[in-house]
Design brief:
Layout lengths: L2 H17 L2 H26 L4 E7 L4 H29 L20 H10 L1 H12 L14 E3 L12 H7 L1 H4 L13 E7 L13 E3 L7 H21 L4 H9 L20 H4 L4 H29 L2 H5 L5 H32 L4 H15 L2 H26 L3 H15 L1 H4 L1 H6 L4 H6 L6 H8 L6 H29 L9 H9 L4
Parallel strand pairs: 1-2, 1-3
Antiparallel strand pairs: 3-4
Helix pairs in contact: 1-13, 2-13, 3-8, 11-13, 11-15, 11-20, 15-20, 15-21, 21-22
Length: 511
């Protein structure tokens, strides 16, 4: 059998060995599922939080209490309007959605003017009337989200005329969920807002107190702070002699900036949402590149250590040379890596096909960008050179280690070294053509990951070609060095060699 045939035979054995393992199948399915869940679960948790009970003690006359009630009502209505727009995007034919109605897609953050138009349109009740006649056949009914916050009366027996600190102390058993504040849900008190006597929004002499055990729960506190800030600003406008109509006009005024890029000069220069994905797509590909390479490179390390420990390596090397064995392992594990990548893409596409909503549409736009740009050939090239470099190093480590513990002591500093580009992600994203990104991009060990991030900024083709050639040459040098180390160390027994001995094994052949 020829040398090439023996290499493919080793590669086939390596691929079959790992393809039959449970870890291989778990990795193929679990990673994309976990990635999707990581994005969806926080959103799902936020959307499905149970309503939280709160109470207001306004000792200043009632104006603050009314402003808080209005803020909570606006928050509930804003959630309903947002849900209505999402429902219309998912379940209504585009031609049946008037662009100047609450059913139209959102254009930025929902404003007070949007809420006013929603109320004038008829609100949730109007939506329930007209949606069944507009929705596609089989569409679920529209169910508006419930309120995030429910105001409850103060418990009987709490003196609401005392000092705010005393009121807060009296509410402590309810805030700690030791006592129910009411029988119906939500039964336990989440927060209490206490406005001190004589409080004036324009000239506050003391702070409004917010009592809660959940000190990291800022939703209600933030909502109230924003609402009272707007109320205070409006009061100051009126104090300066402005009419309510003028105040409302000032509050509704928005200034928007439209992004333009010289790279889109042929199309008018305007930057769209799809164009902004160019900052995200390369980063996602770089992360996928890193994950796929390290996943399979670790298999090489563990496989060699296992074969050394059970003496199987001696049997295998009686049929093939060390170089052929190493090449076959690299080729077989590369096949495992490509299979895993293919599975991630397929699972991700299946999730997208069965999904809906603006997030899924953004994902489709991202896929279109990947297919229309230089990302696929660049990803293929950087996968090959990055895999050969890192996998060869891992193979070399495995050839000098007798156990996973020995390998771990060498692997830990190496992993930290290889993770350096990800500590620099934010500076590189903010300034992809700056000194940090351009300098690190010339380091062959980091070039595959850094250049994937920088591709969206259209770096000079000379820089791309020269850094790619340097990385390829470095990859070939690493494979050559690790092949020598593998040949001279894989059958070695005893304690792991010192660095000086490793260097000697690389620079000269042993008899």
């Amino acid at each position: 059998m020829s040398a090439l045939g023996r290499i493919f035979q080793v590669a086939r054995r390596e691929y079959k060995h790992h393809a039959r393992s449970k870890g291989f199948w778990l990795t193929m399915v679990a990673v994309p599922v976990v990635a999707v869940l990581a994005g969806l679960i926080p959103q799902w948790v936020q959307e499905n939080k149970p309503a939280r009970a709160f109470l207001v003690v306004d000792q200043s006359g009632g104006a603050i209490e009314a402003a808080i009630d209005q803020a909570v009502a606006n928050d509930t209505e804003k959630r309903a309007l947002s849900a209505l727009k999402d429902y219309a995007a998912d379940n209504l034919p585009a031609e049946s959605v008037p662009m100047l109605s609450p059913l139209a897609p959102a254009r930025g953050e929902i404003t007070a003017a949007d809420l006013a138009a929603f109320r004038a349109w008829g609100g949730v009740e109007q939506a329930r009337k007209i949606l069944p006649g507009l929705a596609r056949e089989g569409a679920p009914p529209f169910v508006p989200p419930g309120p995030r916050f429910v105001r409850v009366p103060a418990p009987a027996g709490v003196d609401l005329t005392g000092d705010p600190a005393a009121i807060g102390a009296a509410l402590s058993p309810y805030l700690r969920s030791e006592k129910k504040v009411q029988d119906a849900a939500p039964a336990y008190l989440s927060g209490a807002i206490i406005v001190p006597p004589g409080y004036d929004l324009l000239k506050p002499a003391a702070a409004i107190q917010y009592w809660s055990v959940n000190i990291n729960e800022y939703d209600l506190m933030t909502l109230v702070e924003k609402a009272l800030t707007v109320t205070a600003q409006q009061a100051m406008y009126r104090e300066q002699g402005m009419s309510q109509e003028a105040v409302d006009a000032v509050a509704a005024r928005r200034v928007a900036l439209q992004g333009f890029s010289p790279d889109k000069a042929a199309e008018g220069g305007e930057v769209s949402t799809k164009d902004r994905l160019l900052n995200i797509v390369p980063l996602g590909l770089a992360l996928m590149l890193w994950m796929s390479i390290f996943t399979v490179a670790n298999l090489l390390l563990l496989g060699v250590i296992e074969e050394r420990s059970n003496k199987l390596i001696e049997v295998l090397l009686s049929s093939v040379s060390a170089e052929e064995f190493m090449a076959g392992k690299l080729l077989g594990i590369a096949g495992i890596g490509l299979t895993i990548l293919f599975a991630w893409i397929v699972v991700g596409l299946l999730i997208l096909i069965n999904g809906s909503g603006p997030t899924v549409q953004l994902a489709y736009d991202a896929i279109a960008l990947i297919l229309s740009g230089p990302y696929i050939p660049a990803f293929a090239f950087y996968f090959v050179v990055g895999y050969l470099t890192i996998a060869s190093v891992f193979l070399g480590l495995g050839s000098v280690c007798n156990s996973q513990q020995e390998a771990q002591s060498l692997l830990t500093p190496l992993v930290f070294l290889l993770m350096l580009p990800f500590f620099l992600i934010m500076p590189m994203m903010e300034d992809p053509n700056g000194p940090i990104a351009t300098t690190v991009g010339w380091i062959p060990l980091y070039t595959p990951f850094v250049m994937m991030v920088r591709l969206s900024t259209n770096p000079s083709w000379v820089e791309v070609a020269m850094s790619g050639a340097l990385t390829l040459a470095f990859s070939v040098l690493v494979v050559w060095a690790m092949a020598r180390l593998f040949r001279n160390a894989v059958l070695r027994t005893g304690q792991p060699p010192r660095l000086v001995e490793v260097w000697r094994m690389i620079t000269r052949r042993e008899a």
